[in-house]
Design a protein that fits this description.
The complex is a heterodimer of chains A (509) and B (358). Chain A is of the alpha/beta class and 509 residues long. Chain A is built from 16 helices and 22 strands. Chain A has a 6-stranded mixed β-sheet with strand order 6-7-8-3-9-10, with helices on both faces. In chain A, strands 16-19-20-13-21-22 form a 6-stranded mixed β-sheet, sandwiched between helices. Chain A is globular and about 70 Å long. Chain B has 358 residues and is mostly helical. Classes of the chains: A alpha/beta (509), B mainly alpha (358). The complex binds adenosine-5'-triphosphate (ATP) and magnesium ion. Magnesium ion binds next to helix 1 of chain A.
Amino acid sequence: MSEVPAAVLMKGITKRFAGVVANSAVDLEVKKGEIHALLGENGAGKTTLMNILYGIYRPDEGEIYINGEKAHIHSPKDAIKLGIGMVHQQFRLVQTHTVVENVILGTGNGVTFNEEEVRQKIVELAQRYSLAINPDARIWQLSAGEQQRVEILKALYRGAKILILDEPTSMLTPLEIKELLQTLRRMTEEGNTIIFITHKLDEVTAVSHRVTILRQGKVTAVLETAKTHKTELANLMVGREVLFRLEKQPLERGAAVLRVEGLEALNDKGLVAVQDVTFSVYRGEILGIAGVAGNGQRELLEVIAGLRPANKGKIFIQDREATYASIRERIGMGLSYVPGERMTALVPNMSIAENMILKSYRKSPICKGLFIDRQVMLDLAKRLIQEYEVVTPGPDKPVKLLSGGNIQRALMARELSQEVDVLVVAYPTSGLDVGAIETIWKILLSQRSLGKATLLVSDDLEEILTLSDRVAVMHNGEIMGIVEAKEENIEKIGLMMAGALKIDREQWV
Amino acid sequence: MSIRVRIERRLEVSPQTQILAILLSLFLSFVVIAVIFSFLGVEPLNAYRRIFLGGFGSIYGLSESITKAIPLLLAGAGLALSFKARVYNIGAEGQILMGAVVGGGIGLFLPNLPRSLLLPLMFLGGFLGGAVWGLIPAFLKTRFRVDEVLTSLMLVYIASDLVRYLVYGPWRGPEQRGFPYSSPFSLSAQLPHLGTTRIHYPTLILAILLAVTVYIMLFYTKFGYEIRVVGENPSAGRYAGMSVERVVLFVLVLSGGLAGLAGVGEVAGIHARLGPPEGISPGYGFTAIIVAWLARLNPLLTMISAFFMGGLLVGGDAIQTALNLPSATIFVFNGVILFFIIAAEYLTNYRIKVEAVR
Ligand SMILES: Nc1ncnc2c1ncn2[C@@H]1O[C@H](COP(=O)(O)OP(=O)(O)OP(=O)(O)O)[C@@H](O)[C@H]1O
Ligand SMILES: [Mg+2]
């Protein structure tokens, strides 16, 4: 039988960073024309392995074969020459440039390209893989999903036959995810090969042919997707059973801790993004805000946190009006906020320990007089690292060295550990592995039983239903209705998310 | 087999790498300057030998280097703080001059106060003079978002014209027979010196104390923490309820004030009168920018870099006269060093690998 050589064969790859072995003798075989999922906990070494394949890092040990031939990949340029393309966990587009300009950038053709030809080719590629995009739009005008299409087009334009996607779905809306998965299928039909990193097991079972699972830098299993199921995958990933059976004590409605009335706010483009939003969050309650990302959730949370002015309406925290309070005053009133854009709440170049005190540096015990007590700071950081299972060699390492999911854990650790009354949390588990999701969910529920009021924004309905007591659905900047978080309301929620149903305010729970 | 050089992004920069980068950038600057020397018909090694001996090779040279390190340290420590907050105050030269004007003015007009009162008063005035010169760009930046690089630099020229106006006009000493100088300061408006040197030690002690204080403030206090956070990521600072405006205001006022103290030291410790701006400060405020970067924005290390740059200035003066070089040579020097230091700052974030490829 004539064997087609594997599109990618990585053999015995080892990569060490100061204090961490990110990959340890990893073997990865990706067959031509398959979608190969790469699965693993946060910090398991997935991004590192792909960065090695794409020539960003050099392995300390190991060999790479592309289509059966030994490859020397010293830089992304070499990788591109071999037909490898990569879409990174964080996009790397120039915001002020157009789609066409971004595709051109870095091809080494910057000086002599014929823009018309390039546009033609982009339109052609976009049509072939149904990646709808306006080639003349500027990047900042595009949604996360559209930006991702640009990244994929960029890779295809450079002739990628092997495409690496690092957590491509964590920023996308459900519809965009569906479209992306379809595009991926189309691409393999045309003979392309795809390596797909994700934490979402549904996606793995939906599109991949085979899965490689990494744990703590080592391969723990290579499976055919058809012959496995979600529970097995989850167990192999975390090395223990993941139950997702969470205890939620029934709630007796307490006092309203966070109240907003008739709130209106603009987005960055100056358009109304939040319209007449009214709700209360009670003591010991989690109010979920469901909705497709980009329907005003971010703006709403920013107004509550004080980062964006309210046009109209009022905000009350513990019955005190906070509409015009400064950010600092709101922190003082007991408000904690985890934004969806993690890096706006962290200082990547500063140590984990220094990041852990960002909210508490003004108060005792961190602050003694004018001075910051470094010992107390380090102890706090060590405790949080342990409690929230942040994978890092130590609290003095800069945050930017953490893996994507561990950055998220560090941020959650800081915000959830504040002594506050109101938690405002956006997408708490996006980019987290199943084990970590379970941990974060448990923590959010334990905060609930401690009596905190939580406002939870998520586009993951399962998460909303598991955690919330009530669900408010946001569409086009408006609250379409508030219903109890029960399975039987799923249909209503879906309709409201699509804007097809609006419940009278009298009937809100 | 061939050799291939690759550049790889580096996420963590070790202290060794940092020191190596500084040494390498100095070395490269000296190579480039050597080329310039050759063009000027000067044998580079000879020139370097003379510079080194001029700045560090004798007791006199050393004392002069320390003398020049005083204003560099005061201004440089302040600039390190300001740059750490990503506030680019490049107008220390003007702030030095304003310190000299206000501090010197107090000395001129209250000559009969006792020394123990007059000198502190002059320093206080000088601090305020420099601080106001820092406050203007701070105000324009926080209120109208005007870039502080432009405004602080423009204020240098205004300060220097003001000094010129004063010493040619209203403050010109009647006994100076038309030369642009004020009357000499009274004895109680003059700083004491160490032995026969020109080291006005009260300013030196003040400078060292302040550099240490700035260091402690930056790395151990609540406010220093805010400065570093805002400098590294303003949006995180805002998110944590910090006032970015307050940080901008504070670092510009403080770095301006420290430069102002340097101005007082120069007029009360060296000249004992006010004179034309080039005389009060031959570019100390600009050299202080290099002092700050050379110390990698660490206020403690500015003590070393200020001494080093002071030595270069002294050595530079020595070769200018000895080898008959144009007086702008030292500015070329400064420019080249600054260029390499900034380049090194950028390049230490990358790793250069040389490897053999078969
Ligand atoms: N440049 C680096 N220097 C030091 N350590 C690093 C570096 N890059 C990654 N690491 C460490 O290597 C380990 C693996 O990181 P990697 O980013 O590959 O994880 P990952 O599997 O992609 O995780 P996630 O799902 O959270 O994105 C982590 O412990 C991380 O902190
Ligand atoms: Mg990753």
